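Now for one specimen:
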Amino acid sequence: MEDIGRIPEEIVRKIAIEHLENLDDFESFKEVCSNWRFAIKEVDFVFPSTNTQLPWLMLADSPTTPYRRFHSLTKSMFRKFDLPERDDDDDDHRRYFSSMGCVISASRRNRNINLFDPFSGRCIKLPSVKLDLLNDIDEFNPWNDNTYRVSFIKFILSARPSESASYDDELEIAMVYDKTQRLAFWRSGQPNWMKPDVDLPWVFDLCFFKGQFYSVDHQAKVMAFGSDVTKKQPRLVANLMTQGLILENPMNMYIVPIENKLVLIERSFKDLDEEPGFDENSVYTYATQTFDVFELDLDDGKVKRVESIGNRAIFVGHGSTFLVEADNDEVQLQTSSSSSNKHKCGCKSNCIYFTDDWYETYYVHKKGGGGDMGIYSLAQRKVVDTFYQGPSQFDFVNPPIWVELPRR
């Protein structure tokens, strides 16, 4: 190891620039020794505007561990990230979510919310959630483990936090909270989470697009929220049920921008105990059955069903919904005066990669969540593959989640 540390910095930098293929390799390279880490501190990945690398899967490690392990789909390898210490919270039980490459934690005891960027090590403390924001919390329904499991559903960032303090002024976060899946918003500089003026229960997912949040709910309605965080006046954009595209309340839906349109994904499940040959000793009694995809034109509010998302894959679960380009996915590692090195990622095109996010069901199963994960082909209309069957897959509170790799 001492000999490795003596390699001249210019040689180490040259190896990193010319031979490392992706962020997985780059992160591992930094951990060889402190000299290598110092030598490449000014070397960074430069990503195109679209996401082109497979995400990492954050595994279901014990809530008492001070770290989280990430599984690389690209390299089929594991990487451990130490979680930041929190002086103001001695609670060792937290729920974890992800958005824009960041990990968001919500503590059980004090409902403290923290945002952690595993790639830069930066941590941002967000306002804690006050009990009066949560429904059905009183002396007859106290805050407890079961309440905690269903009171934080999803966090969606407007953008990935930057090192620039001025950029932080523009950071906005939407939170889906409470077992009735209501909304609250926060912007940098605000002391508390704020609810919109109109109560909108049973929101499934949100995305940030062209300066505002868009949500999709249990009635397949798409709502847009204005730019003023203190007056979130929602506006109805489209209703898939009144347009005859969805006949009954969906079980789960997601929303993601693709180019200049919004794409909506409906996820339906099947009861395995009603399937022929079902094993009564099976851990799971449910599984994802189908995904249906719809394209929303924001100019006229018209929605149409689509059979293909092209050379892309969409990733869904307990976090922001995002896509990865399957073709033309070049990423380069460079400095200001270096050559570049490019690679291809290995995601399956026209597919949806899904993790287990049916929290209402999995927290009562024998092993918890984590069993309903796989790759769904829109062309074949079925689940065609799995992407992980290793350790730390199951958990009642924190089943595996996607962590999107950062992009510029």
